[in-house]
Write a sequence for this structure.
């Protein structure tokens, strides 16, 4: 048994899509989530910048003695996960492997589209993971850099989602992977844009299941009598962060603390 919290990080509010699924799957577990909203979006930064920013959030979570770390950010997973896993003891779980696994399982025509930030698309991480699981899968990758900042602002995104997905017209894919954890916050808009014949994959579902499997394997579950707590931190505006988090987690109150991770 291990009563320490599960740590989660993201570039902003998108990680709430993973936090929600993890809490649902593991209701007895405490969580600590940090969103680096002061530096978002990560998708237009260099790989080295993403690595350094992610390292700051990892160090913050380590200062909280978390037992496991989830990169609830596709860009951080693509750019930094392999490097930072070598620097820390707790296991790191990323969203890309989980999202690729889910898409590979459900595609019927073996044509999968992935929309994500430029860093994630340029890494070809989803393509590699999908074709590792099934070499016959054809993967279309599309960078949609405008969407994460708009979703962070909770604006009406349908027109922009449709415009951003326009290059996918005629690709005949039956599965669309939301390769940025901000995107599930606008999942209804994505579903409307691609139509009812395309299955939209939110990697958060599979992340939660994989986290459960890892914790079972490594005997990391909390004691059954443990009372779960949930802490939320941001490097940006805590009021804005809390308001966005409340609407997505469907809670009335969400205490959020502002932190500076630069000196950790």
């Amino acid at each position: 048994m291990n009563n320490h919290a599960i740590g989660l990080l993201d570039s902003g509010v998108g990680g709430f899509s993973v936090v929600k699924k993890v809490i649902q799957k593991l209701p007895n577990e405490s969580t600590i989530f940090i969103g680096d909203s002061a530096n978002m979006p990560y998708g237009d930064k260099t790989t080295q910048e993403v690595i350094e920013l992610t390292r700051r959030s990892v160090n913050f979570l380590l200062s909280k003695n978390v037992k496991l770390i989830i990169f609830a950010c596709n860009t951080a997973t693509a750019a930094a996960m392999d490097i930072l896993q070598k620097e820390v003891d707790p296991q790191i779980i990323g969203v890309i492997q989980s999202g690729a696994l889910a898409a590979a399982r459900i595609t019927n025509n073996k044509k999968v589209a992935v929309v994500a930030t430029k860093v994630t698309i340029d890494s070809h991480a989803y393509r590699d993971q999908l074709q590792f699981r099934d070499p016959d899968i054809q993967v279309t990758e599309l960078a949609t850099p405008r969407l994460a900042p708009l979703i962070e602002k909770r604006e009406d995104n349908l027109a922009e989602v449709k415009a951003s997905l326009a290059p996918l017209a005629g690709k005949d894919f039956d599965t669309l992977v939301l390769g940025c954890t901000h995107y599930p916050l606008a999942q209804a808009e994505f579903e409307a844009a691609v139509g009812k014949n395309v299955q939209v994959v939110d990697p958060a579902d599979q992340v939660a299941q994989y986290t459960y499997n890892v914790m079972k394997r490594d005997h990391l579950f909390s004691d059954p009598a443990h009372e779960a707590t949930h802490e939320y931190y941001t490097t940006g505006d805590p009021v804005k962060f809390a308001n966005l988090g409340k609407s997505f987690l469907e809670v009335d109150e969400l205490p959020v603390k502002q932190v500076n991770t630069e000196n950790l």
In short: The radius of gyration is 17 Å. The CA atoms of residues 128 and 166 lie 24 Å apart.
